[in-house]
Amino acid sequence: MPASPVEFWFDFGSNYSYLSAMRIEALAREQKVEVVWKPFLLGVVFKALGWESSPFVLQKLKGDYVWRDMARLCAKYGLPWRQPSTFPRTALLPMRVVLIGADQGWIAPFSRRMMTMNFAEDRDIDNLDAVGEALTTLGLDAPAILALALTDENKLRLRRQTQQAQALGLFGAPGFVCNGELFWGNDRLHDALAWATVTEPRACHPDNQPE
Amino acid sequence: MPASPVEFWFDFGSNYSYLSAMRIEALAREQKVEVVWKPFLLGVVFKALGWESSPFVLQKLKGDYVWRDMARLCAKYGLPWRQPSTFPRTALLPMRVVLIGADQGWIAPFSRRMMTMNFAEDRDIDNLDAVGEALTTLGLDAPAILALALTDENKLRLRRQTQQAQALGLFGAPGFVCNGELFWGNDRLHDALAWATVTEPRACHPDNQPE
């Protein structure tokens, strides 16, 4: 029985999404699992929950911890890391552009490039220069792609995909959805991929008790 | 060079502390790491942060997710699990009692028993019956221990230990502290134990970048 696909829900402004975006394709390949990249606007989700910014900004103690946690995790994973001087960075333009990549087959490498700009190079990414540079580096036709990205239809598509994230119960990023199961956070990446290859229902309903 | 000890900061009301409390001694033994159990009042920490209850109660979407996450993780770890009908459970009496166990050498088995009552048996634990039963099951002198636990000195000790948790920057539970490093959450248990055996400084300050 083939593995089920795993949806990877992310936002370019989300630091823990960076950790997953850089690793998910290699890990999924090892397990022969297909990844479906699902960009959504995390800020919209936060606002609907009543938060005016990231919890890492609103809760100073947790925010301080998060940057230390990120440095340790990047060292562990062998990923480059520089704490962004602006957080959370807006990413509306690259989030619109990356949707085109879902159709054209370059969503993963473009996403890794955006994430690297934000979290390893401390660069603003919500502008034509950064996005154009990333597209060109990948050998893509930047003007044609930007034209597609900025249509009303595509803008609406990103809004709809964000609503879909809310309907799935997402309250943060990254999220992973597999066989109707939601997993939240980079810490659940392995569990989500393992779920893709489960062939029988897991005994993990609320009454589950060994013995 | 011997491994550094790892402090394990927990509250009996904290569901993710349950996952660590049940597993930490076996995992630490494998790595020859000493565990120092550090009970603290998580509710006091939350109140000081402006939260009137657990974030899993205050944020309904996250709360719903957490119970599913717990069921999955318990299935993965082979731990019994029943969603508590009261959450978060108060645990002031057992938290006072467990401090005596730190002096007398039974803090780990008593903690596992309290956690099991709360998260596998759905029993209230903040009463003399539950605490007395747990002590007696361990072959301990329940009346003598309860007398020690209820002295003003011991109550003050728990308050001081909670202040120490705040001074360490703890904003949730469980927490692990090793060599001055704070790790938050059951998901960091392995990383905290690994930190205990690090012999040279890790390259994980904010400017860390491979190459």
TrEMBL record, chains A, B:
Catalytic activity: 2-hydroxychromene-2-carboxylate = (3E)-4-(2-hydroxyphenyl)-2-oxobut-3-enoate
Gene Ontology annotations of biological process type: glutathione metabolic process; naphthalene catabolic process
The organism's place on the tree of life at top rank: Bacteria
Residue intervals of the DSBA-like thioredoxin domain: 6-191
Active site: S14 (nucleophile)
UniProt xrefs under InterPro entries: DSBA-like_thioredoxin_dom, GST_Kappa/NadH, HCCAis_GSTk, NahD-like, Thioredoxin-like_sf
Keywords associated with the record: Isomerase
Molecular-function GO terms, alphabetical: 2-hydroxychromene-2-carboxylate isomerase activity; glutathione peroxidase activity; glutathione transferase activity
Enzyme Commission number(s) of this protein: 5.99.1.4
Keyword Repeat included in the entry's annotation: no
Gene3D superfamilies: Glutaredoxin
Family statement drawn from the similarity comment of this UniProt entry: Belongs to the GST superfamily. NadH family.
Protein name per the record: 2-hydroxychromene-2-carboxylate isomerase
